[in-house]
Amino acid sequence: MEALAFSVGAPVPSGYNSIKVRGITENRGANGAVNLPVPMTLNGERKYVTQMTVTKPPQRVAGKLNYLVPTLMKKFEYSFNFAAWKPIEKVDPETGEFVLENLPFAEGQNMIAVRAENAVGIKSHQLLKVVLNTIKEPCFYV
User: Fold this and answer.
1) Quick one: 63 exposed, middle or buried, by C-beta within 10 A (0-12, 13-18, 19+)?
2) pLDDT tens column, 104-133
3) What is residue 94's three-state secondary structure?
4) N or C: which terminal CB in the chain sees fewer CB atoms within 10 Å?
5) Which residues is 136 bridged to in the sheet?
6) What is the Cα–Cα distance from 100 to 63, expressed in whole angstroms?
């Protein structure tokens, strides 16, 4: 199984392999709390990712809710490829770490959206486009 981790210190559990990210699109700007880039560490450097390309479909996506008391969130949900919103239920109450497993990644573009509303009603969301390219690079001869 393959794992893709958004959080900085998320260890890859036994039975999973890490996925190498082939390319990223980065954007440090945020439009208020409307659409925040996904902060992650790649090759020891902090990146603010809006899109990434991978060569294997992840079986597990790990992330971290950065909120002081995760159990007080009014809403914490995800949508995969524009499907209906689903609650993210298994959030560690102390660290905010969560896992999305067995998302049906398809060849090409896939969209992970996460939205949250905290205890005082402040809303935010993050979008991450994951491009799955399992096809070998084309070779052209002239």
Assistant:
1) buried
2) 999 999 999 998 888 888 888 888 889 998
3) coil
4) C
5) none
6) 8
d(CA 40, CA 86): 23
Which structural domains are found in the chain, ordered by start?
A: 2-132 (2.60.40)
Residue 1 confidence (pLDDT): 44
Distance CA 81, CA 26 (A): 20
Say if CB 72 and CB 118 are below 8 A apart. yes
- For residues 39 and 66, the answer to whether their CB atoms sit within 8 Å is no
The burial of 62, by beta-carbon neighbours within 10 Å (0-12 exposed, 13-18 middle, 19 or more buried), is given as buried
Q: What is the dihedral of CA 1, 21, 128, 33, to 10 degrees?
A: 120
Task: Read off the tokens for 106.
Answer: 């398809």
For residue range 17-48, what is the model confidence (pLDDT) as tens digits?
666 666 666 666 655 545 566 777 777 777 77
The Cα–Cα gap between 19 and 52 comes to: 11
Largest CA distance in the chain: 63
CA angle 61/23/110 to nearest 5° reads 45
